[in-house]
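An instance noted here:
***
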Amino acid sequence: MRTTSNPVFRNLPRQEGSGYANFGSGVTTAGQYGQPYGQYPPHQQPYPPQAPPTTRAMTIDDVVTKTGITLAVLALSAIVSYGLTNANTSLAPLFVIVGGLVGLVLVLIATFANKMDNPVLVLSYAVAEGLFLGALSFMFTNIEFGGVGGSALIGQAVLGTFGVFAGMLVVYKTGAIRVTPRFTRIIVGAMIGILVLMLGNLVAGFFISGGLGLRDGGPLAIVFSLVVIAIAAFSFLLDFDAADQLIRAQAPERAAWGVALGLTVTLVWLYIEILRLLSYFQND
């Protein structure tokens, strides 16, 4: 399986060979012994019966269903968060901080504790991230927090996010851009570079007004946001390819929750960056 930019996909368990976990290996059929089903070679005891499989292999329908459930929970949580912060603006910073930190911790647990296929953890992340996004969206669009544009800006960001997602899915399915090891290295390197620049801008902001100018709404900030959006969009190709490889490797059905988590993380990142970019143009 190729390396993906999303650590959630990288840490799904694998085994050597063509199978995934306990699938696709060590299964012996009656035909391999040259005997019809139900008959045994002479002077041998019958083969011990095989236990029925405890789960089935993951399919694309599982990925779509689990991702849809995760996004639905996230959207519901975000709507509740937005409504509560609209009624009481003092809740906005609290939801942003708590929701963001809890979401980050859950992703780290899923990644490093190999619990990506745990539906409780995935849906808990969706709830926490929904609280974060709802409050953050309110702050981006509410004048009290220096935001502009109102709810229309949020709708534009949502449409833009899913538009990019759909477009990259078409690109992947048509093979217009192929996911190769070199392509993967470029995207991963670009993501590391973006992270370093963001941290540098944050640190510089403590000493210089506006930091490095990557988030002040100026021309450099607009260019930087466009680059980040492009990298987030291209990372979808790596995630699609990783999910495709899991399906081909007959990953168990529960692995679809890990795919749903990985795709949701990328969608959240893309939405925030599109919302930020749109807010720049509203300020102008």
